[in-house]
Amino acid sequence: MRTVGVEEELLLVDPDTGDPRALAAPVLARAAQDDPGQDVFEKELFGQMLEFATHPQADMADLGEEIVRCRKEAARHAGEIGCAVAALASSPLPVSPSLSMNERYRWLAERYGIPTWEQLVCGCHVHVSVESDEEGVAVLDRIRPWLAVLRAISANSPFWQGQDTGYGSYRSRVWNRWPSAGPTEPFETAERYHRRVADMVATGAILDEGMVYFDARLSAHYPTVEIRVADVCLCANTAVLIATLSRALVETAARDWRAGRPAPDPSVSLLRLADWYAARFGLEGDLLDPVTLLPKPAEQVVRSLLEHCGDALAGSGDADRADGAVRDLLRNGNGAREQRRLLARTDSLRDVVTGCVRLTQA
User: Fold this and answer.
1) Tens digit of each residue's pLDDT (9 = 90 or more) over 95-139
2) Which of 191, 196, 267, 338 has the most crowded Cβ, counting Cβ within 10 A?
3) All domains of the chain, ordered by start, with CATH?
């Protein structure tokens, strides 16, 4: 059974006003005081962000419990210094980000200028174990058309600097300002993958391998494929669904590779359009079908993902759980829909944030 680990970035906010607060350093200090050996929580690019990482899990129920536990622990540490955590992929309220001070982050700010200061966005990265770099690259080549569907499912960033952007995942539009971000062409072999990464670093446009921000990549530190397209999900159940579908996509791709089935070969140009559809509409309109790359209703495309991964989901015992989670998601909506629903009910972006603080731990 392939193991799965999840990294989530959370927004630190004032519990009363909803304004983002640059308190990552004292929150991390409090976490270290409570557990000197803790390796769960880390700082991120800005002081208004807090990241945690789960351990690798083979059972999705165990992974879900750990995500909920980490969110609650983050909320407890934050609460002890007077702030709260919200699983929001962008701040609904206006914010001036505070850069975390270390050499790497200063380099980013000096190198890229204004786009660096616009990166106060929170994502969810899913690590799925692979047996080798060769298998990992075969997986990367085969999951490319399906990644936009994960983007649409996770969409949780409709607001930016106090305004409705019209997008479900505006975070993805911000994130793609990095020069190394986005979809890739097929690599075909591990040797070609690593050569491409080395060539990118050699240009000097990026600092190192850690800045290869492909939508999915080989992890530089773990024997995993790292899928990086998802917004941080408002509800933990949606994060578990993203992880479940990610593992099933990886397993399906690996089986196809071992069976000698060729990887699909859509152009990067079309994959960018599919990603735009997912970011713009989330689950509220059409998406591009990963097979035909023509528009279809989002519900049909999400269900086609379940069908594509059906054997892998059945093999891991996740088929019923995934089917039920998708039904709930299509009925109730993702984080973007819930944020807009909260705004329609309260007419206050501050109330949107405080409502999302509660939902983060639900």
Assistant:
1) 999 999 889 999 999 999 999 999 999 999 999 999 999 999 999
2) 338
3) 100-360 (3.30.590.20)
